[in-house]
Every structure is written in structure tokens, then in C-alpha cells.
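Batch 3, record 17
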Amino acid sequence: MNFELNILGCGSAKPTRRHQPSAQILNVRGKYFMIDCGEGAQTQMQMMGLSMANVGHIFISHNHGDHVFGLPGLIGTMDLLGRTAELHIHGPQQVGQLIDFLLRTYYADITYRVIFHPVDPSLHALVYEDRSITVHSIPLEHRVPSVGYLFREKPLLPHIRREMIDAFQIPFSQINNIKAGASWTTEDGTVIPHERLTTPAAPPRSYAYCSDTVYLPQLREILHGVTLLYHEATYLHERALRAEQTRHSTAIQAAMQARDAEVGQLCIGHFSATVKDESLLLQEAQSIFPNTVLAREGLVISI
Amino acid sequence: MNFELNILGCGSAKPTRRHQPSAQILNVRGKYFMIDCGEGAQTQMQMMGLSMANVGHIFISHNHGDHVFGLPGLIGTMDLLGRTAELHIHGPQQVGQLIDFLLRTYYADITYRVIFHPVDPSLHALVYEDRSITVHSIPLEHRVPSVGYLFREKPLLPHIRREMIDAFQIPFSQINNIKAGASWTTEDGTVIPHERLTTPAAPPRSYAYCSDTVYLPQLREILHGVTLLYHEATYLHERALRAEQTRHSTAIQAAMQARDAEVGQLCIGHFSATVKDESLLLQEAQSIFPNTVLAREGLVISI
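Prediction for the assembled complex:
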């Protein structure tokens, strides 16, 4: 089942010919969760063949232009497309001012409801849940209140071993009980343990988005073991001081976070316009955490 | 000398893979006049190698998202680029709300001043003037207050015929008088008429931007004889009723305007996402006004 990250943009605030500002779509079984929405995000979605109708929730990290200025156009386009489903936007309360302004000024008459949910950027807390995933906030630290998001699949039920069901003539009505963990007792009183009747489901996958932020070693526990971590890596190590001053991270710091949190894979992005050769960022990160990839527009990572 | 139109975007509100929303740069001898600023305009400028530092004035037609949602990002990028020169934005007063909001919310500390100049969309009036051009508003009619812009070069002074100056030994101090229209009287009292001493300058060029608007035959006089007319042609003739309802024009109507105003050339744009083959728009327009071209992103028209 789909659990797939689509990179719409991975540049930073100063635009370049190479990159679009931050925006992503996490595709969880056909439901699209948008993460940040820089200018041009809707165009990038079109280029990648991602339908805006599938976006129900947008998670914004912080209220800087390069993470939110795609919202004005996106909200309007969804209206032109005849949307009726509610659109939920999550983010630090400052983002609510933009949403309020847009709804008052441009979108008083749109065909659907836009609902803003403020997220407290100081907490690691549940901000969204449905049948298949949970989303928790990750407290980040930047020049303005900033928050990351951790998407976790809920554990899946084990698969039934059809041949065992047949062999023990277990009635269909018991299947859900067995999936949920029950054993089966035969007519002669033999207990067939749950484990013999099922094969385990794939382990739940997880995705964490950390941008924009300084390097925060204390996130190690929150991020522990995530399948894929996207971490900003705005600067090369030689500009570590600049990173500190602007409350950004270096590629090395992103990799240290990945290594210390023992994540499966690291994707680095939010590249500064001053970095002309991003392979240097990749080299630096891989020197610490080999399983690192560079984000780029159009990249799809199957998690 | 440059008098050159650069098309950054010529789509309409619903984005497509083919077009960006409305935005243009009129390059008048290296000074860039931006006309409308749809989402992605700054990226398009970068793609076309047009420096944002050269933009001093932005003329907005109306306060619909596909004509203004590039402003939030553009204003921020100019700040990141260290701009100190004032930025002047002209447009119907509704556009001022967006500028106000941006300056209050995102750009309280930027390095330069943004000055908004409301334009009365009901008037044909002078809205800008410098040494080389004038800009007049053109009253349009759309679902919201909308205004076009007419850019006119000021007449250039004639060129001095150097060989005549030498022949009559006219002192250098008189050159400016002669350029301005004076004749020359020789020592023996012969009057050498101005026309013998000069060759006429190239006729002043002009550019008119009409988008978004219904077809307005009464603009014929304002537009009379312009060198290049950009007129919206959102729909094919078969959707003339839809054009009327949404206060847009068809390609035929754009061409009728060009023909009746006896313009030099017509460029049509603001194409509806529903028009899959724009060559049909061109065919329709050329059936009325042969010297018509289709706008496209990246097109540069030397006027």
C-alpha cells in the first residue's frame, strides 16, 4: 500500500533556477497530505500528475513566505475545480492570519470550507488521526515558531493463512477475531495459537519532516527509528556559523540527527541558493549517515 | 532602443501544465515595468534572465489571484536581494489591501519601501510619467474593478545632420536649440530651416495591455494606432456567451478591437484552461486581424 513522499519543492527562501520553495505531498493510500506550500506548489502538483482533489489536510511548518505563499493560489484553484470537501490546514497560529485574510478578501464565496487548526509548536502532540495514520507535531526551533510533523502508519492486522483456516475448518465469522489476536480451539480442545493461523503484517512505516530548524539533538527520541526522515540541510559545514545565526541546519547536522535517531533513510533539502553544487551537501551528509539522498523537484520516495 | 515585451505568463485562473498566470515585463531602455504578477512570476523572470532589481513599478490590472499572487513572494525576494530602491505598485484600490496585509504581516522589517498608488479604473488618466514614457490607465470592465495600461514613448528629438552643422559652421551651443525645433540664420541672413538641419526621430512606440475585460468597442479611440496591443482572448467564439457571463473576451473580439483601433500588431493571451488547442484562437483572431500572435511563456516581442 502506498506510503510515498513526493517532493514538489526543496529550495529555500531565495529562489533559484534549480529549485522551487518547500512543498511536499505524502501519499498515504491515495490520501494526500500536503506538507508546506511554497509558491508554485499547485503547478508542481500538476507537473507530477497529483490531483488537488486528493488533498484533505495541509500541514504547515512555519509562517515564512517560502513555506506558505502557494496557499493563496491553491485555495482558489480548488474552488475553481468545484471542490466541496472541507480543507483542513494545520500550522502555528501565525499561519491563521494568512488564511483569515484570504478567506475574508478573496474567498468569501468559495464552494467549500477551509478550516484552520492551530498547532502548538512547543509540543510533541497528536495533531491528526484517521483509520490508517497518526500525525504528531515535532517541536522545532527557527527564527519564528516552527513545527515538524511525524506521520506514522497504524499497525496493520496480520494476514490470515488461508490454508490453516481450511485445515482446521474455522468458520468465516471467526476470521476477524483471529486477525485481532484470538487463538482457535478445535472440537477436541486443542488450542491452535494465533501465530500459526496468521503471518505478521508489514511493520508500520513512518515519515518525519523537520524544516526549518536548527540542529536539535533532543529530537533523537521523537525521531527514533522513523523509516524516512526529511531534514533541512540549508548549508554546507563551512557555513555552520551562518546556519546557527539564521536558525538553520547543515548537512552534517541533518546526518547526525539521522544517525543518532537510527532512522532508516535520510532525505536532505531546503538548499540555500548559495550552495551551487548540492553533491557536496550529499557527500558531507553521507560521511556521517550513508543512506542519505538529495531531495529534488519531482522526486518520489516509496517509504 | 529597447521597447520590448516579455511574457512571463499568459494563462487564466485555472492553472494548466501549459501556462503560468498573467505576468509581463515591459522593458523600456532597461527599465522594467511589470504588468500583473501572477503566482510564479519571479520564477519566470529568473528563467528568462530578467533581473528583479530593474523593476521599479508594477501595474496591476485587478485584484484576482491569478494577477496578484506572485506579489507576496516577489516582495520578499527583492528584500533578500538587498533592495534599497522604492518599489511602486499601481492598481485598483482593492489591491492595496493585499499590499497592506503583506507589509504588516510578513514585511514589517524589509530593507526598502513599497508604495501603493491606487488607480481609478473608471478613468483614462495619466498614472505614471518619466523622461521617456507616459503610462495611462484604460478603463476595462470585468467582474471586479479592472484597468488596462497604455505605455507611450515620448516623442524623441530629431537627429542632427552632422554634415549640415559642419557646412554652416553652426556652433555646438546651438545644437540643442536646433534639436528642439529652431532654424539657423547664417551671417548673410539666410535662414536654414530646421528640417534641413535634422532627420526625424523614429516615431514613438506604444503598448497597450487589456486584461481582464469584456469586449469594449468604446476603447477604439484610446487604443487607436498603438504599436502593440495585448488583449485577453480567454475563449473561442463558440463560447461567446460564457465570455459575456464571466466578463471576458473571445479571440474574435480581441481581433475586432485591434482592427477597429488600427493597431500595428495584436498579441492575444489569458487563455482559458478549457481551450486545448490555442491555434484555433489564433485562427479566429487572424480571420479578423491578420497581424496577430499567440502569447506564450518566454515570448519576447520587440515593439
